[in-house]
Every structure is written in structure tokens, then in C-alpha cells.
Amino acid sequence: MSEREGRQHARTEGRSRGGRSEMRARRSGSHGLGRPWARLENRYPTWDILSADQLEAIHDASLTLLETQGLEVLCDEALATYKAAGAEVDAATRMVRLDRDLVLGLVAKAPERFNVTPRNPDHRVEIGGRSIVFGGVSGPPNVSDTDRGRRPGTYEDQCNLIKLLGALNCIHSVSSAPVEAQDLPADTRHLDACYANIRYTDKVFLARGIGRQRIVDTIAMAAIARGQTPEQLDGDPAIMTVINVNSPRRVDVEMIAGLTEMVRCGQAPIVTPFTLMGAMTPVTMAGALAQQNAEALAVIAYTQILRPGAPVVYGGFTSNVDMKSGAPAFGTPEYAQAVIAGGQLARRYRLPYRSSNVNAANVVDAQAAYETQNALWACILGGANFIHHAGGWMEGGLVASFEKMILDAELLQQFAAFLTPMVIDDQTLALDAIREVGPGGHFFGVGHTLERYETAFYEPILSDWRNYESWKLAGAETATQRANATWKKILAEYEPPAIDPGVDEALKDYMARRKRAVLGKDAA
Amino acid sequence: MSEREGRQHARTEGRSRGGRSEMRARRSGSHGLGRPWARLENRYPTWDILSADQLEAIHDASLTLLETQGLEVLCDEALATYKAAGAEVDAATRMVRLDRDLVLGLVAKAPERFNVTPRNPDHRVEIGGRSIVFGGVSGPPNVSDTDRGRRPGTYEDQCNLIKLLGALNCIHSVSSAPVEAQDLPADTRHLDACYANIRYTDKVFLARGIGRQRIVDTIAMAAIARGQTPEQLDGDPAIMTVINVNSPRRVDVEMIAGLTEMVRCGQAPIVTPFTLMGAMTPVTMAGALAQQNAEALAVIAYTQILRPGAPVVYGGFTSNVDMKSGAPAFGTPEYAQAVIAGGQLARRYRLPYRSSNVNAANVVDAQAAYETQNALWACILGGANFIHHAGGWMEGGLVASFEKMILDAELLQQFAAFLTPMVIDDQTLALDAIREVGPGGHFFGVGHTLERYETAFYEPILSDWRNYESWKLAGAETATQRANATWKKILAEYEPPAIDPGVDEALKDYMARRKRAVLGKDAA
């Protein structure tokens, strides 16, 4: 039969899929939804969309930039560190210029890969090589769901999002905070976020990278969670943090302070220029990549001055803006090019690479989905080792969405399935089954199919493949509507991983002491 | 500033984008929306997700399949053709078995690339090599839009969809019919479809591949449109058609009749097995690919027996089914793997490759978008030269959707932008501009940006990047709602390309004669 006849036949023959009860939540692992939690590797070839000459041109230009223009570093101690290592430092302008051999020699000391280990060692992740780690959204000020709409984030929302991230097996790591808890004091809310990360998941989490104290607190709490001291975490990282360059070419004191503390404590910073084309970088892709590369290498070099061999990640956050409004655009063709090219650059220096799953949509609709897909495909093709904001990001980073979390989970699981290499052997080539079925026959009932069909294909948590009539009868729901029901079900059923009561007590104790110190004796 | 601060700053600073009037329809070309019509090439490296060994294993198994099991060909004339070329033919069972050297020797005669030329030679396309051609949806029985809902297709719907495909510059080719005109007699509606394709666009179109007569008619009308005779089209193809194998391993008489006519008239068939895993092929990917490969090669070999050097395309249509219902699933992880692996196979034989932009969603929502994106990314990565159903497909092929047409157009344009290689030179590396702006500065107002910003970035036709408040004030529309307004605007403003009145008359004349012949003297 022709394709069109076959499609019609297959669809109308398809039986109704039934209701919510059919959503076979594969509760593998102690508390998971979907495929079991597993480390993920990309075994497909890398993909280079920059030619070798183009790559060298960007590399060369970024080194020239560091030699002739340099970075502004707003911290005397860091300036001294650079200077002692051989950089040209102008104390008055606070400009640091670096000879290319110096930069490349330092960058070469960074490890190609390293582990990060949370309180449950089974959820250890590798950062670098061909490993892929999906991390949850980080830092939006607002939260959204389709019932209550968009609103400023609260601690309750934060905890709920963390629980979702904990429940979704496709998520390897949570961020410092999936939404800002705006109902908590700004100076201590990182403690509560850290507690929630530990209490409600046993996955890797991040520290917020602004300032030394937040890093100190997060390391302290991560150590307690692991039943260890901060010193024992040195060389056996428990946390990462995003350290942004204030592009163009400025490193703020809070960022360098956070970075310095991370490195001194043996934890892993993700050095990320913040390079929106036409705003913080030239409007051209080449200029943006050259500037990103220069900024990242210069700051990574700093980490290696402090501690040769310190684990560190090359981060990229390059996109275009909407030139009419100046607003960032994400998940665009330019974004995809920048992500993939950034991966080529990171590979050139044998550095682990961070990129992001980002979009600029205002609602969880087709645009959110296609921008997200552009970002995710680019991350995978670009060899990103750590994919930040992989679950829950909306609206250019201003919103964490509950429905988007489920949409993202569906896509992350699909990528895990796609990245599972095909098995080509006599069993799977199945020439005997083909003979058995014969020309014009059907494979539904043959032994080869019956033995395999239950686990043959990827099982979605969100996609609905019912025929139209069944789908309509069941309420004609969109994916976003289904996602709403799904996150509620997950939250209702979620059982956080157990935590040692002594550990829990010690964490609370630490928080209380720190809050009293920062906020005063009566702080909660 | 940190990423999160920067995002908030950039978004709230963004000015309102205003209303529909801002949708700068780039009316480049005589009647186009979006970027100008242009041939598209993929200059990035090919991507091989099957290892060399895996590819050989599939290749070898498919040849073994042809040698030991073969295909059933339900046409005595075709059986004789195969037999005369050296195949082993069993007249009683109508099974054809082919020695591998015979198959490969024949397949090697097919050209690596060829042109297809419509009535406007400026819209000639290349099929093969690194060229990419996006073709419109083909053959659903139903049509849908968000106002009138899902309904059986009519000729009016068909014409409207063709006009949209004509207007959208990202579309290179229309199909035989974007929806079935169910209000027209089944035996002659292909004439009306062909007329509409010619009347409302000057792009390449397809013939419906079932049976010899439809091919004869379509070639005749394509010749009239080009001001030529059918004989003059021989060797200078005007049309293509999809020829399906009735998988598993059966070639129907109508299909082989259509195929034979296409080849004898020097037009290009797209030989496509119809291989849904677990239904028409083994439930395993390896088995599906081996069977697809065997079927495609055997029928492509037939075309080369008929006419060595005849243009022909290797088509793939492999996906999985939803094992609970038996309904086809599209845009899945398995689909993506099959598309990319199929491309590797086609490349092995130096054949042009056809794949498809397909999904199984019931509504134009996030699922439709993400399944579509999986399919499109896979097609691009798989090196597909002809991407069938690229505009308008919904619901596993049962529906052509007006809103989906616009969504697809947005994505096709994005891919064209993504496939535009980056320019890396001194101008774009922009070290001078970086120096001019200085650390912590802003690139918005610098000369380098001002000279370029108007055309710097991809301009969407559907994506909305306004900040939340502006978007909400303007009606809080989803992408699908915007798409609804967009297709109506396009249709209202569309001016079909001019057609020579003599050509128009001749086409109508041909149709009238053929309808009288098929339907009787009083046929309209």
C-alpha cells in the first residue's frame, strides 16, 4: 500500500490508549519517573561546523585579544595572582594582559574530566569527555504554572521544583536554586536553597557563585550532607558553580572571590562569559566567539595559577538579541551555531564544556518547544558535557515553569534514547523473522516481535499518540495540559530520598548559626 | 553581572515590540514571505552514527536478503524485465531474487544528483549531493485549522494550501496534493491537483505515483506548463513521484506501473519502502534498516535495468509504532536514528536520499513542535536531499494543517539560517570594535554594530520575543494562534505567479478531455 493508505490504515486501526492510568510511570530506582537514572554518554562522532582554519582564526584572535587588550579584573588580590604568574598587570587600570604561551600553558594543566559526587555516591556524575549531565534551571525570579500563572518565586515553589528535579530520573543535577525564593532574606536564602537541594534530592547541586561566603556555606553544607568535612571534599568535588565574566572583558570582585574560594576548596567552577551578540560582544558571531574564548581562557588560566590541575569547566552563553527590542533571543539559529562552535573550541583545549537549554518564549507552546529543541540538539551536537537549565527554563530565564519541567523531561529522555547506539547483529538484523513473515505479511504476531516489543521502543511520559477520535473524546488536551497533570501527580507521589537524622540536624544547625550571624539573634 | 541578572536586565529593558504591523514580511521575490527563495546546501560535515562495521553489517544483510529471499513483484512485465537482466525469477510465486553483484552493479549506474525544473526555471532544484529541497505535505485525507477544526479535505482547501506553499519562500517544491480533494471524483482529481499546482505556484511539484495513467497525465500537464512536449521533458525532469514498496517485500502492480512510466518518460521516482518497525518490518532497528535497504536497492536496480542512468531517489520511511495501540509514532528517538542511518546507507551507494518531516501529534502544540524538530534535525544531519512533507503535516499523515504550515515554515527558515556557514575574518572577528567599546562597555551604539545590525540575525516569522508584559497586553497569544493570523494574511495577499493564457487554456483543455474520457461526456 502507499504511504498515505498505510498511514490511514494504521491510525484508524490503533486502539484507544485509555486515560491517565496508562501513564506507566516506570518507578525504577527508589523514587523516579521514566527511564532509570543513569549516566549518559555520547558515543556518536563529534561534529565540527567550523573548519579547521575557522577554528584557528578564532583561537588566534582571542589570544591576540588577551595579549593586546586583556581583561579588567576588579580585585587587587587576583591582580597580584596574575602578576606573579607572569601576566602584564596595570594596577591603575586593573587591566591584565596575557601572553599566549602563558595562557595556553596554564589552560593545558586543567583536567579533561573530573567527577562530582553528591550525598548519594550512586548519583556521582562525570564532567568532561563524552559524558553528558543535565542540570535543572537556575535562578529565575519568577515561577509559573498554568493554574496560578506567573508570580514571584517563593520558598515553597523552590522546594516543589527541587522535588520535581529530584523525581525526574533524566535530571542528573539540580542547580543552586530553580527559582529565587523571594520571600526569604536575600543574604541567607542560599542556605535554605542548599538545604532543600540536599533534603529533597540526593543529586549533585550547584552553589551560587556570587561572593566567597556563599561558596563557603555551600561547601560546608555539602560536606555535612556527605558525612565529611570541607577538607575531605578537596580533590573530591561535591559542587560546581557558575562564575560569570561581566562581558565584555570585566571580572567583578564578587565573581573572582567566589571563583577563588571554589578553587582553593577543590570544587569545580564553570567559567562562563555572558556574551549576547550586539550587546556584550560584537554583533558578529566571530567576534562573539573570539571574545567568549578569550574571557573563558583568561579566567580558566587564573584557576590554574591558583591550583594547577584544578577542575574547571569552559562555559559558553552566547546568543543573539532581538535587534528591535534588545531583548535576548534564545534557541535561535545563531544560538545553535554558537553552542556547537563553542564545543569545538572547548575540545581544542581539552576542557569540559558547559552550555544551556534555553528559549525566549512567554508560554509553554510550540515556540517554547522548538526553541528548546534547537538548544538541546545543539548542545548534544556541540558535545556539551554539562547542560545547564536543562529542566524548567522559560522566558529568557525570567521564569521557572512547572509544565516546562515536564516538557523538558520528555525531551531529555528522548535524547537519552537517541544516544543509545543501535545494536546491529544477527538477532537484530532478523533475517529469519523476515523470512517467517513473508512478503506482504505482518510482524505484529511473530515470535521475534513478541519477545521484544514490550521494551522495544522509547516510552514517552508526555507524548500522546492516540488517534484523533480517542484523543478528542478524552478531552483534546495539549501537551502543556498533560504536563500540568503530570507534575501534580509527581509532586503528590514524591518520596524524597532518606536522610540521616544526624545529618539533617547538623544541616539545620549550620543554617541557624549562619542566619543568626548574618541577620541577627532573632533570625528564624 | 551574573547571567541571571543580565537576563532580567535585558528582558525588562526590552521595549515593547508592538503589534502585527511589526511583522516585517520580507516580500523578497515576486510573491514571497520571509527569506528569499533560494536553493539550499548543507556545507557542514556529514554525520555518521552507524560505525563502519555496523553500516557494512546492514548492507551485507540486505544483500543476503535479496539473494536468499528476494521481493515479490506482482507484475508479469516487471518480472520479465528482472529476469532478462539476470535476476532469479520464480513465475509461480512471483519472487525475484538478485545476486549482490547484479544489484550493486545496477545501483551504481544511478546518478548521484540531477535537476528537476518547473515552469519557472528560476525554481529549478537539485536533488542529491549536498542539496536540500523542502517539499510540502502530501496526501492527507483531512485538513484542519483552528477556526473550522478538522474536516475532510476539499478542492478549495487544496488550492488554499497550495497557495500557502507557493507563498512560503522556504518551500522549494509542492507535492502531488497537500490534501485530498474529497469533493472531486477519485479517478480524475489528480488532474485538478496538478492544475492547481501549476496555476498557483511555479515551483516543482510531484505526481501521484499510483498507476500509469496518473503519471502520463501529470507529465503531459507538466510539459504544457513548461511550453514543451512530454518527449522534451525526457532527460530534463519536471516531476518526481513517491513509489512505495508494500513492505514487507511486495511490489504492487500499480506502483510498478507508475514507476515504469516515470522511468520511461525520464522523470524521477523516489523509491520508498514503507517500514514501520514491528508492523511491516522486524521490531528491531537493524532489521528495519536491512529490509528497507534491500527493498529500496532492488527497486532502484529495476529502474536502472529499464534505463541505465535514470534519475532515482533512495527513500526511507522507517519509524516505530506505539506498541500499545499499533499506531505509527513519528518524530521519535527511533525515527531520528532511522533517518540518519538511512542517510548513511544512501551515501554508501551515492544515491540521493529522501526523508520526511513527520509527527504524530493531534494538535499544533508543543508535542507537534518537538516531534517535528526531531524529524527536521535528523533529516538535516542525515543528509536528506529531499525532505517530504516538510510543510503542513499533522497527526501521522491524516491531516494537513494551516497553522502547522506556518510553524513548519518558521523552522525551515531557521534551518536555512543555521546552515549558512559562519564568516570568520578580520571584519567579523572585530577586535577593533572590542577595543573601542572597552571593558564593561556596550556594543549597541558602536559603529561596527550599527553597520550590521539590521541584517545581523535571523528574523522569525512566528517567534515572539517580546517581554512578558508586552506579550500579555497584546493578547497572550500562543505560537499557534499567531500562525492562524499569519496564514490568513498570506492567503489574503497572495498573488500567484503569472501564467501564459495559452498555457492555461491548454491545461484546461487537457483536463476536460481526460475527464470526459474517464467520467463520461457530461463531466465538468
Provide a descriptive summary of the structure in words:
Two copies of one chain form a homodimer. Chain A is α/β, with parallel strands linked by helices and 524 residues long. Chain A folds into three domains: 3-30 and 442-493, no CATH class; 52-105, no CATH class; 113-419, Trimethylamine methyltransferase-like (TIM Barrel, Alpha-Beta Barrel). Chain A contains 20 helices and 20 strands. Chain A has helices spanning 3-13, 52-68, 76-84, 100-107, 155-167, 189-200, 212-225, 230-233, 253-264, 285-306, 333-348, 366-381, 402-418, 426-429, 431-437, 447-450, 453-456, 468-473, 479-493, 501-519; strands at 40-41, 71-73, 88-90, 95-97, 113-116, 125-128, 131-136, 142-145, 149-152, 205-207, 239-245, 250-251, 268-273, 275-277, 313-315, 318-320, 353-356, 386-391, 393-394, 399-401. An eight-stranded mixed sheet of chain A has the order 1-7-18-17-15-13-11-10. In chain A, strand 3 (88-90) and strand 4 (95-97) form a beta hairpin. In chain A, helix 11 runs parallel beside helix 12 (366-381) and helix 12 (366-381) packs parallel to helix 13. Chain A is globular and about 80 Å long. The relative contact order of chain A is 0.14. Chains A and B meet through helix 1, helix 2, helix 10, helix 11 and helix 12 of A and helix 1, helix 2, helix 10, helix 11 and helix 12 of B.
